[in-house]
Write a structure and sequence with these properties.
CATH superfamily of the largest domain: Vaccinia Virus protein VP39
Structural class: alpha/beta
Number of helices: 18
Number of domains: 2
Radius of gyration: 23 Å
Largest sheet: 7 strands, mixed
Helix content: 40-55%
Strand content: 15-25%
Length: 435
């Protein structure tokens, strides 16, 4: 039995009910016996050594490799026990999960003038589209849903998210809208159909670009909804009435916030409105969890608001509204995780069992971050103009009521998984690519 690992586990798990079988066969019960029990088995001694050396990275890797096996409960239950105790032993947990070397490396890398955005985006978003079809809603919204009212389905909550954002954008027919990080096109199509605007969506994912263009064409929206393979930093010669960005800011990097908001101000008309939807943290994290950074979101960083707002102020952008959504992503991730695990065999056939465990670990770890680390969603509404937004928030609910009436008339979406899997590859002209 690895004595160093046992010492670490006893420091971390004082609350809860976790049983650990070491590779030697020795069994240890940790915690005070409260809560849902979970049991793990560590298969070999080398896995035990690896976890001690770098828990934040290597525990996830050992689970992916099948060298940490869950025998009672699931990986979410195990991570929940650790995170619950983390609230009581914050210093121990922080020191265990992120080494100083990792923090310094990510802080330096985020400030280097090396553009790895397309590489980082492709790492995650250019995976087989069938993977995302296993757990996303019908519109493939890969960002936090809005469960208002609480208890609605994932599809209804993702529709409510689009409605809520559209209401805050104060859209009027004929306006030109820029979506920074346009995903699979669902938000752009909703804005165009609901409000009569023209939308330009930009993305760095070639796979998402193909899907988005195809969806817009099939829906007859190609004249009003256009998608480009484009880095926001090199977008030139255009201004927009509205800008929206959902779930993209987490990829900007802490060293680039000033440049980001400077570019947004340049692209936004003087009377324009921008809505930024992003994950936030209650404190400065300094670095992303090393396992998430390596396997899921290279280059990603989830900021505290105190790291974001100074850049907004320096650009002389007015904060018209800040809304905090504290639990909605936990509920979204729970729905994604349950859907994904229910289709385990399909996920394993797409890649393999190791990939399934990696994705399951990602969804479970992300859910626990919102439940126990108090991560949240913030929506910043920004404008250069004092008069661009009404002085009270009543307009949001009023516009949402109008959008609900539109949704009753809107033709149903065509599910992405109904498409011909043998569709030809789209040729993307090099001139459309800016890096």
């Amino acid at each position: 039995m690895n004595a160093a690992l046992l010492t670490l586990l006893r420091r971390l798990v004082r609350i809860g009910n976790l049983t650990v079988f070491f590779s030697s066969g020795k069994q240890v019960i940790l915690g005070d016996g409260t809560g849902k029990p979970a049991t793990i088995r560590i298969v070999d001694a080398e896995a035990e050594k690896a976890i001690v050396q770098d828990p934040g990275l290597r525990f996830g890797e050992m689970y992916m490799d099948g060298r940490v096996v869950i025998e009672k409960g699931d990986i979410f239950d195990v991570l929940s026990i650790v995170k619950t105790n983390g609230l009581e032993n914050a210093a121990t947990l922080s020191n265990s999960l992120m080494t100083l070397q990792h923090v310094l490396r990510q802080q330096v890398r985020s400030r280097l003038p090396v553009n790895r955005n397309r590489h980082n985006v492709a790492h995650h978003y250019d995976l087989d589209r069938k993977l995302f079809n296993l757990f996303l809603d019908e519109d493939w919204q890969y960002s936090c849903a809005y469960f208002q009212p609480r208890g609605i389905s994932l599809d209804a909550a993702q529709l409510a998210k689009k409605r809520h954002i559209a209401a805050k954008l104060l859209l009027e027919p004929g306006q030109k809208v820029l979506e920074v990080g346009s995903g699979w096109g669902g938000m752009a199509m909703y804005l165009a159909e609901s409000s009569g605007v023209e939308v330009t969506g930009i993305t760095l994912s070639e796979e998402q670009l193909k899907v988005s263009r195809d969806r817009a064409a099939r829906r007859g929206l190609s004249d009003r909804v256009r998608f480009e393979l484009q880095d926001y930093r090199t977008l030139q010669g255009r201004q927009f009435d509205r800008i929206v960005s959902v779930g993209m800011f987490e990829h900007v990097g802490i060293g680039n916030y000033g440049n980001f908001f400077n570019k947004m101000k340049e692209l936004l008309k003087p009377e324009g409105v921008m809505l930024l939807h992003s994950i936030g943290q209650v404190y400065k994290p300094w670095a992303t969890n090393p396992w998430i950074e390596k396997y899921i979101f290279p280059g990603g960083y989830i900021p505290a608001l105190s790291e974001v707002l100074p850049s907004v102020e320096r650009m002389r952008l007015l904060v018209k509204d800040i809304e905090i959504l504290p639990m909605h992503y936990a509920w979204t991730l729970r729905a994604w995780r349950e859907r994904f695990v229910a289709r385990r065999e399909e996920a394993a056939r797409l890649y393999d069992e190791r990939f399934f465990r990696m994705w399951e670990f990602y969804l479970a770890a992300s859910e626990t971050a919102f439940l126990y680390d108090k991560h949240f969603i913030f929506q910043l509404q920004l404008s250069p103009s004092l008069e661009a937004v009404p002085v009270s928030r009543g307009y949001i609910e009023e516009r949402e009521r109008q959008l609900i009436e539109f949704e009753k008339r809107r033709p149903p979406l065509e599910p992405v998984n109904n498409w011909d899997e043998a569709e030809p590859e789209e040729h993307i002209e090099p001139a459309a690519i800016a890096v």
